[in-house]
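Try this one yourself first.
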């Protein structure tokens, strides 16, 4: 009787959210933490025996040493020979590091990592192993042929069991493991379905331990939710060393690898890639993708310089002002923030007294598939709208950088010097910047910098530059 009562007390029903890992005290139709419907599942939590007992000390496996006597050589990054990925990683993959690469389906994660595995096998001196839980080895081989990613030290396996994956590690002894994807692997003896909170946590924890023990660089492919967040428990991002987001529009060739977390380098770097029929290649100078070359100046366009991580990208903003309509006119954006466009339109109409936009349709877009969400593009957006509304073409050698406030003032933004240097490198000779950003002659050689304090003075300066 006592034994059965103890067992019933040790194993009690519990509930966990399959989306975020939250553990409510009872079953709920909607998770109070992440607001997902139908994600609460029942699990069994076993109470630890002897709860409340003091844990006694034991002899550690390795004694603590003075930090000056510890060598940093084992943590030195090994280049993958994929230049843009190495840029984001901080020089390459560190042996024993675990990297999580997340992105939408079909964006090119498997293609990029297959190229990385081939480059590693060819140049790092140790084999690389690609384990796919979503495709057969024949399907992966077809992609490798298209990418010309065939090498004797590149090994393929198709597994969905963690024990089998560890067995392949014992047999191949690779320096790099690519697991595509972590949501398809199941850990024996762990409850839940593959991709669930418990399974993902168990698989990732095991692979992190193996990576640290054997000095293997591990890259995990992760799924994303409809909101663009990494699928699975939030603890997944805390377990790994590096978190990368692979972004891109399926209708554009541009792909961005954005660093979100990096224990071995900067966490704000961005790598640019171009997707084509032959695979994916690094773009060391992607600014040309975001500009349109016109034979003559065209109204409704203005050029700005955006910062993607630490990289300055010269980008063109386009605007089209439609005819007057009855009712509510459309405000359509592509690659821009619709809320900031609405604010810029209101400021233009209120502060300049030159444009009447309340009853006209406005369409605004970027070139090349890049997405501009930082406030530094406000001034270029305003000048593009004014250029289209007044039918006045901006000068082709002009760039505009600055945030627009509700009173029409132009506010300062970061990294102005780096933005101007990139614009000057591409041949732009005049720039409109906020006050205190380079009119004292500290800007790039050959570029005339004009400080503008408000939107009205910016329009006047742009008109002078276009006329001159």
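Now uncover the answer:
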């Amino acid at each position: 009787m006592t034994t059965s009562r103890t067992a019933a007390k040790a194993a009690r029903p519990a509930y966990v959210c399959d989306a975020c890992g939250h553990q409510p005290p009872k079953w709920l139709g909607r998770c109070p933490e992440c607001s997902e419907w139908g994600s609460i599942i029942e699990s069994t939590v076993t109470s630890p025996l002897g709860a409340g007992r003091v844990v006694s000390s034991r002899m550690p496996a390795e004694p603590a040493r003075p930090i000056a006597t510890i060598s940093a050589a084992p943590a030195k990054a090994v280049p993958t020979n994929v230049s843009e990925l190495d840029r984001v990683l901080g020089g390459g993959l560190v042996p024993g590091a675990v990297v999580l690469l997340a992105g939408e389906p079909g964006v090119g994660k498997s293609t990029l990592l297959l190229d990385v595995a081939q480059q590693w096998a060819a140049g790092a001196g140790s084999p690389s192993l690609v384990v796919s839980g979503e495709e057969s080895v024949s399907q992966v081989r077809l992609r490798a042929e298209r990418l010309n990613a065939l090498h004797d030290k590149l090994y393929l396996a198709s597994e969905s069991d963690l024990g089998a994956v560890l067995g392949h590690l014992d047999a191949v002894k690779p320096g790099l493991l690519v697991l595509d994807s972590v949501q398809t692997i199941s850990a024996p003896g762990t409850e839940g379905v593959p991709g669930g909170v418990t399974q993902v946590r168990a698989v990732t924890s095991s692979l992190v331990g193996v990576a640290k023990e054997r000095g293997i660089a591990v890259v995990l492919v992760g799924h994303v939710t409809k909101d663009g967040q990494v699928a699975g428990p939030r603890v997944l991002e805390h377990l790994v060393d590096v978190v990368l987001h692979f972004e891109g529009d399926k209708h554009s060739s541009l792909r961005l690898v954005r660093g979100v977390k990096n224990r071995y380098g900067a966490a704000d770097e961005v790598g640019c890639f171009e997707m084509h029929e032959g695979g994916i290649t690094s773009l060391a100078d992607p600014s040309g993708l975001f500009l349109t070359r016109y034979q003559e100046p065209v109204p409704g366009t203005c050029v700005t310089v955006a910062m993607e991580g630490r990289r300055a990208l010269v980008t063109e903003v386009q605007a089209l002002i439609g005819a007057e309509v009855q009712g509510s006119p459309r405000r359509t954006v592509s690659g821009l923030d619709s809320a900031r466009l609405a604010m810029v339109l209101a400021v233009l109409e209120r502060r300049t007294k030159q444009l009447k936009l309340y009853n006209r349709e406005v369409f605004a877009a970027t070139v090349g598939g890049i997405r501009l969400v930082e406030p530094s593009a406000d001034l270029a957006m305003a000048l593009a709208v004014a250029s289209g509304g007044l039918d006045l073409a901006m000068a082709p050698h002009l760039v505009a950088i600055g945030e627009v406030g509700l009173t029409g003032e132009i506010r300062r933004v970061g990294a102005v010097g780096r933005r101007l240097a990139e614009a000057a490198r591409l041949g732009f000779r005049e720039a409109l910047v906020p006050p205190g950003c380079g009119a004292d002659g500290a800007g790039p050689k050959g570029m005339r910098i004009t400080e503008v304090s408000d939107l009205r003075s910016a329009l006047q300066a742009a008109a002078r530059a276009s006329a001159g």
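Discussion: Confidence is low (pLDDT under 50) at residues 6-10, 46-51. Residues 103 and 161 are 23 Å apart (CA to CA).
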